[in-house]
Amino acid sequence: MGQEIFYITFLPFTYWIINPYVSRRLIIMWPVVMYIGQVMKDLLKWPRPLSPPVVKLEKKTNAEYGMPSTHAMAATAISFTFVAVTANRYKYPLELGLSGAFLFSALVCLSRIYTGMHTVLDVIVGSLISLFLTAVACPTWDFVDHLMLTNPLCPAFCITVPLFLCYNYPKLDYYSPTRADTTTILGAAAGAIIGFWVNNRYVSNASSEDITYSVSSNISEIILLVLAKFLVGIGVLMVTRQIAKTIACKSLCSWHKVSSSDVVAMQQIKIEVPYKFITYSSIGLSATVFVPLLYIFLGLN
Q: What integer pLDDT is reported at residue 206 of this predicted model?
């Protein structure tokens, strides 16, 4: 919960299965919260908990700074945004939704403490920042959504602004994966938003705004339909990821005359940023345009 496998499954799931309206608002909040959190880490430069006394069960993000916890920020923003958006569209007890959002974000926060990646202060500050950003952004969601769907400059904006932010990411004295992770997130969000724009402008029938099922359908039929859509969609994203990753890697390595096995060369900004951005923007675009079109072709819509 909070790693790439979560984002590449849950966020597309909300678009394919639940509601594109809900998904778009999650996609709005996710990159904003994560970019702010990642930049704050590299500006504050607060170290992660020392080992000993803690036992570190995760090594992947150990090179990053600790304050604030971006896992806590993402979990809080996604869960509470989901409740805020769905509360007025679906009939369910608000208390239940808030409890679920609190439980999910609390589990992610506790997991970061348990694995030795963050202090209690890191996750509390991260959660509070996300709650503040969600509350501030909530009144703007409809306006931003309208611009995202209708403004002719949307695709250009979604390419130039994220790339500008990634190329001007705060520089550190040593290599940290924060820039690569940030580029991954901004790239995926940019691809998805361009896909929303393309659907609204050219493929309006590719996905309905509200997912509905026939009254005559029984629970087993609905579950089978949902499972089929999910498996087909994830399969397409895995193939897209591999193809885009291979093409981007080989093209950039050939252009800059470096080997893909040269770790130091691959970490250079001139290779890392376009490599990550191309790969994950392709995934975002595929999830929002090609997968819904495939559903129509296969009769899964």
A: 44
CA distance 3 to 276: 16
- Among 40, 36, 38, 12, smallest CA distance to 26 is for 12
Let me know: does 82 contact 135? Beta carbons within 8 Å. no
ω into residue 31 within 30 of 0, thus cis?
A: no
Number of other residues whose CB lies within 10 A of the CB of residue 58:
13
**Residues taking part in catalysis:** 71, 118
- 79 closest CA partner among 191, 185, 187, 2: 2
For residue 292, say if its preceding peptide bond is cis, omega within 30 degrees of 0: no
pLDDT, average across residues 21-31: 90
Alpha carbons 102 and 229: distance in angstroms, whole number: 29
Q: Which residue has the higher pLDDT, 173 or 120?
A: 120
- Cβ-contact 190, 284 below 8 angstroms: yes
The region of weakest confidence among 172-176, 191-195, 243-247 is: 172-176
Residues in the chain: 301
Tell me the one-letter amino acid at 57: L
Residue type for 162, please?
P
- Which residue, among 150, 207, 170, 211, has the nearest Cα to 41 in the 3D structure? 170
Q: What does the pLDDT look like over 100-131, one tens digit per residue?
A: 999 999 998 898 888 888 888 989 999 999 99
- The packing angle between helices 70-86 and 120-137, to 10°, is 30
Indicate the burial class of 290 (C-beta count within 10 angstroms; 0-12, 13-18, 19 or more): middle
Instruction: Specify the pLDDT at position 210.
Output: 55
Answer for the pair 126, 171: CB distance below 8 angstroms, yes or no: no
